[in-house]
Amino acid sequence: MYSIEEIASALKGKKKIFIFTHNNPDPDAIAAAWAVQYLLKESLKIKSKIVYDGFIGRAENKAMVKLLKIKLFHLSNIKFSNKSGFILVDTQPGFGNNSLPSQIIPSLVIDHHPLKKQQKSVLIDVRKDVGSTASILTEYLVTNNLEIPKNLATALFYGIESETQGLSIETDNLDRQYYKLLFPKISQFLLGKIQYPRLEKEFFLNLRKALNNVYFYKNVMIVNVGRVDNPDLVSEFCTFFLLYEKASWALSVGGVGNRLFFSIRTQNRRANAGRIARKISGMKGSGGGHETSAGGWIDISPQDKLETITQDFIKKFLIQLGYKEDVFLTPFISTE
Ligand SMILES: [Mn+2]
What we know:
Layout: H1 4-10, E1 17-20, H2 27-44, E2 48-52, H3 59-67, E3 72-74, E4 85-89, E5 108-111, E6 123-126, H4 133-143, H5 150-163, H6 173-182, H7 188-195, H8 201-211, E7 214-217, E8 220-227, H9 232-241, E9 249-256, E10 259-266, H10 273-281, E11 285-289, E12 293-299, H11 306-320, E13 330-331
The structure holds manganese (II) ion.
């Protein structure tokens, strides 16, 4: 953990500060970015902007941003200068899941994914054993004796809660400690509205589409959501279909723009979903993640058909789990 003086000196001379989350930010990334913004404002009187790329698509995440009044800027609406300073949360320079231009060396990186080799940043606080970046940021606020406002506490609590499924997976002492510390400070009412959000009709249409394209093989749920405009759906359905009582793995895939996005989830806590994600994304894409939850994308070139790429990709994944190449996938729900 860095002192506020070290952070101040890393940001010295910077005119505008931008806090980057990973693309299609999840509650952990959003909460962590908001806490960095608060830390800079309260302790250093420095203003900053939170920047994301992609979509905020999941209903819970939309509700979080709206109800807690978190101000985020889409990358397409932001202009940098050579005096700008950059901070990355819940991701790292060189990861395929963020849009920080590769020539930029950030001033500070705070994350909980495995540390990328030869990392370039002025300050790097990466703790791979911690369950959520929100826990790390809560530590920064507490250590700097900052009072945590109700909405920020709610965001951080939900960040930890959603990332660790209520402290039940991939959890460290830090997560447990700050989950308890934040709990009396949150708005139960707003948290409830975030955890049980209202759903747009589009969600149900996508759910029907997904249900028609779910396959079950041995112990694996495979969800092909087809072409969608929001990559959050891919991860959302992956989590959802892993709920099937006989499934220990779930893979979901969906085409967004010229990329095939994928998510992996497993019930097996000793698995390494992140490693599998890195392997199957290969040279044409990017993948990574944690033990039980991972994801990434591969490029689809113009001459490739989405369906062919998808089928090849599913095979690649099943091979990683030790299944033969010519598996026959049967629909999970028969439509007859
Ligand atoms: Mn995270």
